[in-house]
Fold these 2 entries.
Entry 1:
Amino acid sequence: QLQLQESGPGLVKPSETLSLTCTVSGGSITRSSYYWGWIRQPPGKGLEWIGTIYHSGTTDYNPSLKSRVTISLDTSKNQFSLRLNSVTAADTAVYYCARLLYSSSSFANWGQGTLVTVSS
Amino acid sequence: QSALTQPPSASGYPGQPVTISCTGSSSDVGGYNYVSWYQQHPGKAPKLIIYEVSERPSGVPDRFSGSRSGNTASLTVSGLQAEDEADYYCSSYAGNNNLVFGGGTKLTVL
């Protein structure tokens, strides 16, 4: 059974870069039917799609975050990562990694989420 | 792209049906058959309960159903149960490989 687990610093200073990793178990991230994504949820607020990476390494980003976001694959570790630069307090959120069912544009498997706080 | 519009709250008594709406535009909800619904209990990750407007993943109870009329999608929970109390989010494909979520609806079982 596919499982995802986020990891990374829980505290990031303003103007610095937020970096998170999602470790996938139970399946290879390069499998052609697998696509991956990041979603975030500010405390007490709704979900926001950040971006998607395909098994080929091709990416798509939320236009509102595109200038600050990079999502990449590390096939040797069966992981994919998120980098968000120039963070502010507005980037404080629970960050989820998930598997995207490309055929239906729905997220079928989710990690448990990790809270990242932006504060000095 | 703008977030999809959901009512902030909904409620119903056990055993009764409740419907949650999700309004977008012809560029998202009304333009593609890729509307999904997620259930999120407090402190937990979201769980997919409906995809492609009205399809249920394996293991999701059949009291959950989805539909769409024009630019508005709906999630209906028939026969409310206590464990259905949660936040519900819709999402839709929005063209150009973009995805958009709704603001969420808090469902209370009275």
Entry 2:
Amino acid sequence: GAGVSQTPSNKVTEKGKYVELRCDPISGHTALYWYRQSLGQGPEFLIYFQGTGAADDSGLPNDRFFAVRPEGSVSTLKIQRTERGDSAMYLCASGEQPNTEAFFGQGTRLTVV
Amino acid sequence: AQTVTQSQPEMSVQEAETVTLSCTYDTSESDYYLFWYKQPPSRQMILVIRQEAYKQQNATENRFSVNFQKAAKSFSLKISDSQLGDAAMYFCAYRSHNQGGKLIFGQGTELSVKP
């Protein structure tokens, strides 16, 4: 596709459930980033992939959050035992290389009820 | 750690007028990048303008320009001839030269444009 694609657009889940959020980066982009944006706030960095490996996961809030990028393209952000505080917009971005312009997807709005 | 602060939660401008959005940041690094992103209601973050810290000249992109004051750690965005389509959340962001491209965002400024 032409841009970064995130699915689903919206996700409602019950507290305690497991969720997966998907990101399809722009073809050929080696760098991929996940951010979390709470209502009325700026995005906060979660994790950055260079190729298949997580180069920086310092933003993951706790061990309930995990992300993978097994083939160096599509990435999945996984959240276990969801809590109401996990409700936010989750944004994905990709770049040709690290330190080049990052292009953002439209995000997945996660609501934990 | 680097921080980015936007002290104006909301701003309003009349169509065709000029508005300036403020941003300050804190860093001990000398080489970095600064950005302004626009996030309309459609949610997609769009890059408006970027500035390399080593460049003294202020960046300009059509109606958008910045006032970069490195010593003061200030990076404001000026929008000239404001248009209705400029209404959005605007985020200032910082990127280190050597941390793989992760962005540190400010809290955002919601800009409304009055016809």
